[in-house]
Amino acid sequence: MTAATETTLFPAVPDSVDAVLDGLDPEQREVATALHGPVCVLAGAGTGKTRAITHRIAYGVRAGILQPASVLAVTFTNRAAGEMRGRLRQLGAGGVQARTFHSAALRQLQYFWPRAVGGELPRLAERKIQLVAEAAVRCRIRLDRNELRDVTGEIEWAKVTQTVPEDYPATAAKSGREVPRDPAEIAGIYGAYERLKRDRGVIDFEDVLLLTVGVLEDRPDIADQVRGQYQHFVVDEYQDVSPLQQRLLELWLGGRDSLCVVGDASQTIYSFTGATPDHLLNFRARHPQATVVKLIRDYRSTPQVVHLANGLLGQARGRAAEHRLELVSQRDPGPEPVYSEFADEPAEAEGTARRIRELLDAGVPASQIAVLYRVNAQSEAYEQALADHGVPYQMRGAERFFERPEVREAGVALRGAARAGGNDVLLDDAVDLPSQVGAVLAASGWTPEPPVGSGAVRDRWESLAALVRLAEQFATGRTAAGAPAPTLGDFVAELDERANAQHAPTVEGVTLASLHAAKGLEWDAVFLVGLTEGTVPITYARTDEQVEEERRLLYVGVTRARVHLSLSWALSRAPGGRASRRPSRFLNGLRPGSAATRSRTAGEGGGVEHGSGSRRKRRGPVQCRVCGRTLTDAGEMKLMRCEDCPSDLDEALYERLRDWRMEQAKALGQPAYCVFTDKTLMAIAEAVPDSESELASISGVGRRKLDRFGAEVLALCAGEEPAREAAENEAAGAAEGPAEKAPQDVSEDSADD
Fold first, then answer.
1. Neighbours of 2 (CB within 10 A)
2. Do the Cβ atoms of 467 and 437 come closer than 8 Å?
3. Is 643 helix (H, G, I), strand (E, B) or coil?
4. CA separation for the pair 372, 499 (Å, rounded)
5. Do 327 and 310 touch, CB atoms closer than 8 A?
6. Averaged pLDDT for residues 631-639
7. Strand, coil or helix: what is 418?
8. Which secondary-structure segment (H or E) carries 236?
9. How far apart (Å, rounded) are the C-alpha atoms in residues 468 and 112?
10. CA 187/CA 124 separation, integer angstroms
11. Among 166, 337, 514, 530, which residue is least crowded by beta carbons within 10 Å?
12. What is the pLDDT of residues 547-581, one digit of tens each?
């Protein structure tokens, strides 16, 4: 059965409970039917996670297990929340609340504020950055434009990590943050900003979460009322939750476990805002009875794009990397990714624009093409190059669609025409909804054919054309669903709902966006540009953790592409400049003619090659020895079986191995996992090897540990008492010379050789 990440805009409502499950793949179906207790969905890019969780909610509602009003689904953008609400309506699960964390908290705060505090809730500050600027002036600190933005970001980070101004310098130092100014200065501005807000009676978005947490903590009666309303929670993009959002979620739950979380640690790219994947990675530890489902079937990208994405993560390290998901493309093969090197940045922009023009001429819609870069300052060259080639474009993250003047004017005109009904002469010759919308917008200057060239006139036309296309889709969808032909009033109501959710229609232009702004989106063709050292990874990414986040950011960029993927870099900034730049280290071992600089590189079919100076044999996919499913979790790969598959563990041997490991670790002065991890001990206790070759075949038992501990482990497996020479000799060696430094920040499943 084939599933997809996209459906038609207005599909027919399923006619039965079971029909809700139609079209889901086995793993998505498992998510949809897991309606009790905690559920953790580890969902790779393009694997249909929104489809899985919306069908899960709808199945529960249609089956009578979940009451619509008792479900709260939270995500991180208005666009995602609007899409979720739309899908739920089409699945027959209207009435479910799908909101962002801030929107849900604000709604509760507005309702309970008069009762909890008295009076009306303070208004939200319209321009936070302006208040920060005033606070800096009060502190007699001058900030340029970039510093002002960065200091504002630091204040936001401090608040979501629940750090007060006086604690900011110490907390920032402990967290290893690269601060834009002296920490004491930032703390001073932060304190002045908070006082300024109080003086003016305003709050910011972070205050919404903080105040909601405070009300729920201080007023058990209000907390009980909220918990009585919402009894089942779904959290999308769980890898992006901040400590403050996690605290709010825990207060909503109130000790209950009716929770479904969805995320992918490999897509954690917002740590600078306080987001952390720890809550996702620790979910099973907090909820031992949780149902864990992994979605690895990629319906978005071709095998060529998926292979590159897997290879990119195959070189990663750190805790998130140990939990990476090996994607398996479900699409037909497509073109190989294109790697391009240019002499300078203008040449790179020109080459990109030329290739985009070729795609347009080949029939790829402009709205299905994106140019993604690391920092917004890179966009100017591409704006100019696209304009020179007559290619329309739109800036992602710029002015919101429904806030554009021409869209506002169009809304007023459509609303007036809807009220006038048949009395509006503009509609005399219009026979259906699309023609009615076109006739109304024609009075605002819209024409069926686009104007020549680009610029403001073309931008205005593209906005109005997007409304006409939306009217066509709306009418077609309603007709296909068997509903009466929609009226102009119906369409205006649809626009209002979309505006509230910031669910904008597609504008026909090439998207220019930063890699961060591209999260959650996808295109047929993606151009990743400016991939040089110092840009990707960015120059201020100095720690291993920061560099790995930059790798994940590039991974997000790669996985935005469905079919065409282009990666490029320039050797110098300006024409005639010294060609001193180097391609991003993340492309080493992936682009043709390059060699990997680390010991782990991607192999064929998503396998991983390990090496430490010498070349080892590539490993193919690891399959469960019980059910045969391809394993992607590092811990399961050690066990050679799924966590949930039946185990033939020799529990007595496992306990003897654990006791022996504790003695070894104590003698060596190292953590227990540096001897063997729990997963490796479990694998040994399941296999019960009786020879060195059998022991060596177990994942986590490398040559070094085989030589050091092999004889003792085999003795334990044979039911004998092991000799104690290994630990004693090692301890003696430590006394004579410097001990081997114990690995730091190593996860339970990654410490073995």
1. 9
2. yes
3. coil
4. 26
5. yes
6. 60
7. helix
8. none
9. 42
10. 22
11. 166
12. 999 999 999 999 999 999 999 999 998 888 888 89
Residue with tokens 């540990």: 705
pLDDT of 365 higher than 80: yes
Give yes or no for a contact between 506 and 366, defined as CB atoms under 8 angstroms apart: no
pLDDT for residue 342 is more than 50: yes
Give dist(CA 124, CA 122) in Å, integer: 7
C-beta of residue 382 within 8 angstroms of C-beta of residue 349: yes
Residue 29 neighbours by CB under 8 Å, 6+ apart = 21
Would you say the pTM of this structure is higher than 0.70?
A: no
Letter for the amino acid at 50?
A: T
Rounded to an integer, what distance in angstroms lies between the CA atom of residue 291 and that of residue 311?
29
DSSP annotation of 448:
S
Mean pLDDT of the chain: 82
Instruction: Decide if pLDDT at 320 tops 80.
Output: no
Angle of helix 220-229 versus helix 101-116 axis, rounded to 10: 140
> For residue 478, which phi and psi values (nearest 5 degrees)?
-65, -40
CA separation for the pair 159, 161 (Å, rounded): 5
Find the radius of gyration of the CA atoms of the chain.
29
Question: What is the per-residue pLDDT across 15-54, written as a single tens digit (0 to 9) for each?
Answer: 788 888 988 999 999 999 999 889 999 999 999 999 999 9
> Has residue 747 got a pLDDT over 50?
no
Q: What share of the chain is helix, strand, coil (3-state, %, to 5)?
A: 50, 10, 40
53 phi/psi in degrees, rounded to 5: -75, -30
C-alpha 646: how far from chain center:
33
Rounded-to-integer distance, Cα 430 and Cα 442, Å: 12
Burial 697-714 (b: 16+ CB within 10 A, else e): ebbbbeeebbebbbbbbb
